[in-house]
Amino acid sequence: MKLSILDYVPIFEGRDATQALNHSIELAQLAERLNYYRYWVAEHHQVFSVASSAPEMVMMSLLENTNNIQIGSGGVMLPHYSAYKVAEMFKIMEARHPHRVNLGTGHSPSFKNVNQALNEYKTEKVDYPTQINDLIHYFNDTGHMHHRHKDLHATPRIDTKPNMFILGTSKSSASLAAEQGLPFVIANMGQSKSHLQSVISHYRNAFSQQHPELQSYVIMSTFVITADNDEQLKGLSRAFHLWLLRIGYLNQPKYYPSIDYSAHRDYSTRELEKIKQQHNRVIIGAPNAVLKDLKSMVTMYEVDEIMIQPHVYGEYNRKQLLTLVAQANS
């Protein structure tokens, strides 16, 4: 089974952003040694417990400190930015590290105040499909006479280009990926089985109709928690669910809670109910059980690649998670 990583770059209790970023470099190096195929970085704003507000910057650090693994964004929230500027940043990374750069794009608006700040002074928003067209134009350096920026070139001009991916959970995102002949990345975040199957089937069918000469490609991401003993597994699970619960609060937590803190915190009845509702957003279990669930996911949804999110507390625990899953998959 083809396995990859999606990293939120968590800032653990008692740590700071510098330590979080340094740890992600170490984790990417380990992922490369364990033969994971890609290592992507998410984009999150005003989430104080992660250090992934600028995935492009993290990506360059990862590229500079690894040799072969594909490094990407999961993903750049394109409507906040100029497609031209995004193209130039990714072309610089591609120039420095040819054939290793992945650009995954999404269109989440983020929090209201974040959206306002990122779109400050814009009088007109460019729609997402147009921005995807722009990126393809800039990466291919087509100079197409009908493109709205036909005389504009993204620099540096290079012989290779980043690989593009469309992220989403809806048929509209699936349709866009199919129309452009691009891989589709969908997050398994507790949606119904029928919804996920419907979106993926829609993508596959639309892709084959519009690009019969190409092969469609689907990546599914999911949170994963595993450990080599039940006590550690329960502790990691408690800390994860507390983090997931608290990022929905207006008063954002300043760090990812420790296993000890989460074990001694009191929970309201409402909080316990919310945590219970979130259980289907994560795969939890012993390594072989987790691998079995991931393989079932591949079969059930007919996906080509699984991207695990090792969003657990502690540097050692994250490294162990990657190692245990890789060993189970070997």
UniProtKB/TrEMBL annotation:
<dbReference type="InterPro" id="IPR050766">
    <property type="entry name" value="Bact_Lucif_Oxidored"/>
</dbReference>
<dbReference type="GO" id="GO:0005829">
    <property type="term" value="C:cytosol"/>
</dbReference>
<comment type="similarity">
    <text>To bacterial alkanal monooxygenase alpha and beta chains.</text>
</comment>
<dbReference type="InterPro" id="IPR011251">
    <property type="entry name" value="Luciferase-like_dom"/>
</dbReference>
<keyword id="KW-0560">Oxidoreductase</keyword>
<dbReference type="InterPro" id="IPR036661">
    <property type="entry name" value="Luciferase-like_sf"/>
</dbReference>
<dbReference type="InterPro" id="IPR019949">
    <property type="entry name" value="CmoO-like"/>
</dbReference>
<protein>
    <submittedName>
        <fullName>Oxidoreductase</fullName>
        <ecNumber>1.14.13.107</ecNumber>
    </submittedName>
</protein>
<dbReference type="Pfam" id="PF00296">
    <property type="entry name" value="Bac_luciferase"/>
</dbReference>
<dbReference type="GO" id="GO:0052601">
    <property type="term" value="F:limonene 1,2-monooxygenase [NAD(P)H) activity"/>
</dbReference>
<feature type="domain" description="Luciferase-like">
    <location>
        <begin position="1"/>
        <end position="293"/>
    </location>
</feature>
